[in-house]
Amino acid sequence: GEVGAYVVRVVGEHCGPGAVATVETVIDLVRRTERDLGEGPAAFGLIHGDLHQENVLFERGGVRAIDFDDCGWGHYLYDLAVALSELRWRPDYDARRAGLLRGYRAARPLPVDDERHLEVFHGLRLLQLVLWFLDHRAHPGFAHWEEEVRVLVADLEAHTGELVSAR
């Protein structure tokens, strides 16, 4: 669609043809995953869109989300994938992932079969971070945007390769 064409063009302008092929694969995988999940109330609804530990405040035993500028309609699994994406580099990732999924299941159903979709949504999160840096590259605070994008694109290419080989 129109959004996909924009993403491919922007990534192509700044990251080269190899990144474009990866982006096209990610977009295809995300579209297939979204079709598989459907838009029924069990899978789709209002999501935060950027729900990670830096956007959650703890006060007096309560938890509050902040930073709702990415809020909108989407698949609930995307919010889980974002939270998990921010934890992937920790040595205790497996334990934290298990704890997050256990806590999630205490509040709402999450079929075990749906967990496989988290990896596709992680790819989408990486792609969105690439776009975020590209969109903000002119800002003085992002002088090192090229390095950030290079690392993210390498992570996205590796992750996408794993996704494709797993299918």
Descriptive report:
With 167 residues, the protein is mostly helical. It has helices spanning 2-15, 17-37, 76-85, 93-107, 117-135, 145-166; strands at residues 44-47, 56-59, 62-65, 72-75. The strands form two sheets. The protein has a two-stranded antiparallel sheet. The chain is globular and about 45 Å long.
Order of neighbouring strands in the sheet with most strands: 1-4
CA gyration radius, whole angstroms: 16 Å
- Secondary structure: number of strands: 4
What class, by secondary structure content?
Answer: mainly alpha
Task: Indicate the topology.
Layout: H1 2-15, H2 17-37, E1 44-47, E2 56-59, E3 62-65, E4 72-75, H3 76-85, H4 93-107, H5 117-135, H6 145-166
Antiparallel strand pairs: 1-4, 2-3
Helix pairs in contact: 1-2, 2-5, 2-6, 3-5, 5-6
Summarize the structure.
The protein is mainly alpha-helical. It has helices at residues 2-15, 17-37, 76-85, 93-107, 117-135, 145-166; strands spanning 44-47, 56-59, 62-65, 72-75.
